[in-house]
Amino acid sequence: MRLDTILDRLDAFGLPYAFLEFKDSELNPAPGPPFIVYLTTIAPRGPDEGPALIEQVDVAIELYTDEPAPALENRLEAEILEGVDYRRFQAVIDSENMVQTAYEFTITQKRRLTP
């Protein structure tokens, strides 16, 4: 599994999503729930020499909804996280009247080095 595969699946899922946060402006207002925010941390692993670099990518996908949405969560797990070993957390954000369902996982992938 690669990060770009997860991002392709996010594209196909059909909910608005953003890296880190939505930038709210008059011309481009932030969406209301449901929406997704994802975060990544990429750490190189292994030797710097050779045609490819091994990367460890820690990913968090956060689904925000107005209320618990088990059907949407099940769909996300089936369509975006298929084949991924993830940890799932859920929290109520009272100040925003939202529910956050977060999925965390790690991907190890090769990145080709360009000469």
Major sheet size, sense and barrel closure: 5 strands, mixed
Oligomer: single chain
- In terms of DSSP E residues, the strand content is 35-45%
Structural class of the secondary elements?
A: alpha+beta
Q: Could you state the order of secondary-structure elements as H and E?
A: HEEEHEE
As a percent range, the share of helical residues equals: 10-25%
Q: Uncertain regions: pLDDT < 50 for 5+ in a row? A: none
Overall average residue pLDDT: 90
Radius of gyration: 16 Å
Tell me, briefly, the overall form. Answer: globular
Cα-to-Cα separation, first versus last residue: 25 Å
For the structure shown, list the relevant keywords.
115 residues; alpha+beta; 5-stranded mixed beta sheet; 2 helices; 5 strands
What does this structure look like?
With 115 residues, the protein is an alpha+beta fold. The protein has a domain of 76 residues. Helices cover 18% and strands 43% of the residues. The protein is built from two helices and five strands. Strands 1-2-3-5-4 form a five-stranded mixed β-sheet, with helices on one face. β2 and β3 form a beta hairpin. The two termini are 25 Å apart.
In short:
It contains two helices and five strands, in the order αβββαββ. The chain is an alpha+beta fold and 115 residues long. It has a domain at 1-17 and 57-115.
